[in-house]
Amino acid sequence: MKKLNKTTRLLFLAFAFAIGFGTKAFSQEPQWKLSLEKGVEWTKHTPNKILLVGSSDWGLHGVDAATGKLLWSNEDLYNSAKALKGPDGKKVGYTADLIRVLEDNEDPRVSDYAIVKYTDNILVKNFVVINIRTGELVLDPRSAGMPVVKIIGPEQATFNYDGSDYLPELKSIIITASWEDLTQKGAPFMQKTKLYNIESGGLAWESDEVSSKFLPVITPDNNLLFIGEKTAAKINAKTGQPMWKFEVAEKKNNFEAFDANIHLTEGYFYQKKGNQGVVSAVSLSDGKVIWEKPLASKDAPVLTAENFGVIVADEKNFTLMEAETGNTKWTAKKLSGIVVDLGKDYGIAVGEKDKYLTVLDKNTGEEKWSQKIKGIRIDQLTGAGIMYMDEEGSVGLFGFDGKPVWDGKDMIKGPVLRAKPSLDQEIFYSDEKVYHVNLATGQKKVIINKVEFNEKETPDNLEFTGSNFVLSSSQNMMGFDANGNVLYQDHWASPKISLAGRIAMRTMQVAMVAMASAAAYQQGLTQGSAFAPSSISKQYGTQREFFEDMSGAFGQVANQRFKATKHRGVYSFILTDVGEGVGLVKVDKISGKEVGKIVLNDKEPVFDSDPENGMIFYKPSKKDVFGYTF
């Protein structure tokens, strides 16, 4: 087997040589260069022309995107992210998803701030607000004075993860926490909430009377609705003072379920009270209890609030309690799933266990109709009925009366791409066809009968630019209007390895076939021979399999094409041969015309882009970022 190992090393040297042969060529000089000693993991361009760069030591860096000047570095923002694990128990990689840059179309200054927020829902969680121009730490739980606790794992300041975030209507950051104070006798339940102005960073108000499990809701009169574990309250957004509070009947218990109607006039709470459960209806304008009804349920029910009442679904029943009195209007057979009010007298739709779509009469609870479809889920309500998807991602439409408008073989076959230019129309791509659907009438028609892309590519992106629709894949783009008129269609060939490399690969492939044949011949000679042990025959068999595998691998590499296209803003950046070597062409999505090109001589470039002016930020090595304008 030593001979085999030696051969393997030689083959891989030849393989590496062939790949690299011919790739040394001219590439354009960047506008700027940035190098980080610890290495570059990812980049993220922000609306305010700051390039955020994550480094391999879990540091975060701010760079002026126009000049490449390093503005700041912070090594402490992601400390606990190193310990993040996914549902499979494996460590989560360092991605740009960990940071969210704030946006406000009416105030660009808001995009000077970003939120670092992540959790593994067990031990690790973090919440940090930073100024991405200066790198300044604006807020985190510790600096906000939240209590520091340690139960398991590292010591950390506590906060309610889902209740703490940015409130765009108030241009403020809210941070809220609830906990049991184990340092005090009896471990009393504690609450703390603080509101900070995003621009000044100053504290607007704080309260120890309320906290929220979810991000507080902005009420119609521009105040805040808090739903906590033990306290619900309406808070004056300017002062932090409670306008009303509704608390659990017994301090040892919590609110276990809640929902509010769409107009935020009434909220419904479920809690344990004594030996039974109770559903309470509360006026969200003044906090007064409208009614309270007992509920015999072992587990917390699912509450779905509508204007006509609240649907209570527990382990046995599916019940409607009237909005005015709480009296049970009807009880239907056991149902479970997402509840959707269809409006008017169309009924209440329930998607059951991904098998049925059942519609009940909202006045009687009686079944109006039911359809059984594998994997069914409600996609959207249209003027013509209920649009749904099945387990294959195909799209169909039922009328409100349960009769199919288009289903079965007439469905838009999944998987689909879609773009919605207005509330009453939607464009779908499916199975080489482009469809226009009128959402008001349910009319569906094919506007492009056959889409064919070069290199046998299948479209993977459909978008509306504001002027036209663009259907694209890695190397193909097609622009069209709402009537299906094709405005342009073009193809940019994906680069392959160099001609010299392909010749070398084919030569190696032929050699591998010859070696596999020779090994097979020797295996045949030694098989069953009284003069050769069976282990020798097995060794020849192993060699034959190895050479066959290598032959296939060399063939695949010889045919390999490289793709690295990105669609950002009004431009697409497509990897192709740009004349002087491999690089990117910048294509205007509206006209379909090339408006720039750049030579990188990198067949697998890693890059980010500015979606407005088309500048790209290219990572040529583990430690570098180059900025190009073209």
Automatic annotation (TrEMBL):
It comes from Algoriphagus boseongensis. The keyword Signal applies. Residues 231-333 form the Pyrrolo-quinoline quinone repeat domain. InterPro entries: PQQ_b-propeller_rpt, PQQ_rpt_dom, Quinoprotein_ADH-like_sf, WD40/YVTN_repeat-like_dom_sf. Residues 1-27 form the signal peptide. This is Putative pyrroloquinoline-quinone binding quinoprotein. It comes from the Bacteria. The keyword Membrane does not apply. Keywords: Signal.
